[in-house]
Amino acid sequence: MTSGIHLSLIAPAAFARSPACRADPRVVADVKGILQVPASHLFVCFSSKDEAVAREVVEALEADGLKCWISLRDVLPGQNYQEAIVQALETASGIVFLFSEHSNKSQEIRKELSIGGSINVPVFPLRLSPIAASGALRYELAIRQWIDIFPHRQHALAKLAQTIKDTIDQLQATESQAPPGRPPAAGSSAAPKRAPSKKPASARGPIIMSGSPQFEAIRALLARHIGPIAKVFVERAASQAGTQSEFCDQLASHVAAPAERAAFVRAVQEQLGKT
């Protein structure tokens, strides 16, 4: 597997809800006051119909010291589910994708992989059964080396954990040898590009007001590409972007095809012209 990944080991999810965690500087709160953990986990992307296998994978990886984030355990009570997924993806150091006949048909899985791809989070596919990918997932798996969980389950899980550990060692070695300030050489392993840091809204307020006709029109435009989660991204971009150009760029990063991206930007600019 060629994807680079850099992980920091942290305590279990239960620690994030403990009093000790609140005093730990590694743990920060988001704007809604919900505790979040910095980039230090593997995001587990799976179909709900594969929950039993997903739990087994998480248990195996965490037993080897690799912290995982999985929605069925780590979305906290009262937290917005879609917002939690976005935050977990944006702070993930890698995605463990459980590929099965169920995830092969899931639109939500494709959205999660699309979000991860838009910020260059590396993907580690684990194939649960001997099936071929279809549609968009065919491309996702065609460019990546996957590990089959069959026919020897424990061997496959051990191989997955060891692959991740080996990649960590390779990345750390590359980073320690690189001169300060020099970008990685072409073709070398590099830490995944992180999502842009949040910027405070300008003094004049967000680029576009949530709930306005223009906001709803732009949300609908983006939803055609990534579904209902579009609202989260439009709200975030509106509050973070300093200019309309930055606003368009942030949203366009979630549209995969170049031709569709250009058409999307033009449509968004047209709506912004009405404000």
Explain this structure.
By secondary structure, the protein is of the alpha/beta class. It has two domains: 13-176, Toll/interleukin-1 receptor homology (TIR) domain (Rossmann fold, 3-Layer(aba) Sandwich); 213-272, no CATH class. 45% of the residues lie in helices and 9% in strands. It is built from eleven helices and seven strands. It has helices spanning 19-22, 51-63, 71-74, 81-90, 107-118, 136-142, 153-177, 213-226, 230-240, 244-252, 258-272, and strands at 28-29, 35-36, 41-45, 68-69, 92-99, 123-127, 147-148. The strands form two sheets. It has a five-stranded parallel β-sheet with strand order 4-3-5-6-7, sandwiched between helices. Strands 1-2 form a two-stranded antiparallel sheet. β1 (28-29) and β2 form a beta hairpin. The longest helix has 25 residues, at 153-177. The termini are far apart. Mean pLDDT is 76; it is low at 1-39 and 184-202.
Brief overview, please?
The chain is α/β, with parallel strands linked by helices. The chain has helices at 19-22, 51-63, 71-74, 81-90, 107-118, 136-142, 153-177, 213-226, 230-240, 244-252, 258-272; strands spanning 28-29, 35-36, 41-45, 68-69, 92-99, 123-127, 147-148.
How are the SSEs placed, and which strands pair?
Blueprint (H helix, E strand, L loop, with lengths): L18 H4 L5 E2 L5 E2 L4 E5 L5 H13 L4 E2 L1 H4 L6 H10 L1 E8 L7 H12 L4 E5 L8 H7 L4 E2 L4 H25 L35 H14 L3 H11 L3 H9 L5 H15 L3
Parallel strand pairs: 3-4, 3-5, 5-6, 6-7
Antiparallel strand pairs: 1-2
